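Show me a record, fold above all:
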Amino acid sequence: MHIHILGICGTFMGGLAAIAQQAGHKVTGCDANVYPPMSTQLEAMGIELTQGFGTEQLAIGADVYVIGNVVKRGTPLMEEIMNRGLPYISGPQWLAENVLADKWVLAVAGTHGKTTTSSMLAWILEDAGLAPGFLIGGIPQNFGISARLPGTPALDPASRSPFFVIEADEYDTAFFDKRSKFVHYHPRTAVLNNLEFDHADIFADLAAIQTQFHHLVRTVPGNGRLISNGREASLDEVLERGCWTPVERFGVDAGWQLANVDEQGHFDVLLVGELQGRVCWDLLGEHNRLNALAAIAAARHAGVAVKDAIDALARFQNVKRRMEVRGVAAGVTVYDDFAHHPTAIATTLEGLRRKVGRSPILAVLEPRSNTMKLGTMKAALPGALAEADQVFCYGANLGWDPAEALAPLGDKAASFNDLERLIAAIVAQAEPGSHVLVMSNGGFGGIHQKLLDALGVR
């Protein structure tokens, strides 16, 4: 079957494209912005990409058009698909019907940590020899790809692993299906990592998101398992609406807990107060330790011994764009991180501060998510950026004034609408031993390499 994917360079749709190709389908796609890392991954697979949504693409004669949620009514290609009565389907529904229907799905939901926790879980299952399939909104460095079918392509389909790990996003499915993506997945094991207000472009308030999370809870069978963050009152409220599945909580004494954290971030894993083992790894921050507890608990439900899960995490290599060191120039270390919500920004900076001590941290932020562009959370930014010594904000195409929002930070904050001026200002402030933390959920104009190049010749 030939499938043509509209919005193929999104993390979810790009992963779906990889899985569809592995399943033997011919895959092509288009997007308004074709850029790395997803475009690089797709092109390396031989998937043909088209820039834009022109109607000339119908000449390829696809059997079905898979529609990403970036596509709106009025998009020329979509309008012509509808006018001609051609078959189309959302990405989550296509995945559910063609890949997940007979799988033991392990879904990881939450405002933060979905990508990292999904990557940990997939790696634990892989390390245990269970060869899971996965679709993750990032590239786990243990795998080097964001998505694959269970098992290996050489295996007979009937002998493939039954396990599939998926990052379960609460964002809406498509313009014709306003339910959250995750309601399509019907997991047997579901992780509820945390829950805060986000996606202000589609949700009115936290209660609206909680309703979608409860829709997810309703889809988990009675012989399944819910792994929920016991520190999150917002998740307890979701479960109080009704729950038909056994629940294990993490982050609390009555469930999975961590203890004896040392300066390297190593920690003991406890289950109802009983020591299970010690995680020794390189990841930073309390948020990642909680992610690890969730992954260990979910893996245990799939049959992996806790001691084996703990051992696997010692070899976990994190995810690209999660505190990823992009390079060092003139003694200045440049990091790339996906943080774009105030809570994620704060936890990322706190983790880096623990790592570097009193060394200067220069935080570089591009408010690029739909929620951030709306300015819904601008008041929380000064507090989230408090750990940084200097703050640089790229404010092009925003509907609000970042200089005004960051005014509580005083002289340590500056905003720019021109990328080259922004880079020059960062380079002028950076000194040997500084750590430049770039935070964006997009390409940010290739700023990481431009910074390294500029630092190297100053």
